[in-house]
Amino acid sequence: MKKTMSMVAVILCCSVSLALAAGSPVGKWKTIDDETKKEKSIVEVYEAGGKIHGRIIQLLQEKDGGKSKLCTKCPGSDQNKPMLGLVFLKDLKADGDEYTGGTILDPNNGKVYKCKLEVVEGGDKMKVRGFLGVSLLGRTQIWHRVK
To answer: What's the CATH number for 2-145?
Structure first.
C-alpha cells in the first residue's frame, strides 16, 4: 500500500510540474513574422529576478545565423551591439495567464513597444503582442516552442 501511495504521489507531482511548465514562456521559441509569415529567429526566453526576458540566439534568414549582424537601429546602449545575444524582451511579470508590464524591441526599426505574452495550445505556441498605448493598437505574432 505504501508503494502504491508513493507512486501516486510521484505521478501527481510530475503531472503538476508538466502543467506548470506548459504555461511558462521560459524556453526556446521560433519567431514567425506576422506580415511575411516567414521564420525569423530562435529566441531564448528566461526568468531573471522574478521577471521574464528574451534574447536572440539565431537569425534564421542570415547565412551565418546572424553572427556578423549588428543592431544599427537599436536605441541607447544597444546601438551597434551584436544581434545575437541581444535582450529584446524585458521585464514582463505574470498576470494571471498572461505576462505583462514589459517591453519588446523591434531591432529592424529600433522601436520599443509595450508587450504582453500568453502561452497557448498546451505550451506549444505563444502569442506575443507589441503595442503603443493600449493593446488594441498593436501587432501579434505567434511563436512556436522549439523542442
So the answer is: 2.40.128.520
Each residue's pLDDT tens digit, 58-113: 999 998 999 999 999 999 999 999 999 999 999 999 999 999 999 999 999 999 99
* 23: its cell numbers: 504555461
| Cα angle: 64, vertex 38, 18; to 5 degrees | 90
pTM here? 0.82
Listed by start position, the domains of the chain span: 2-145
The secondary structure element, H or E, covering residue 119 is: strand 111-120
Alpha-carbon distances, residue 92 vs 4, 24, 27, 133 (angstroms): 41, 12, 15, 16
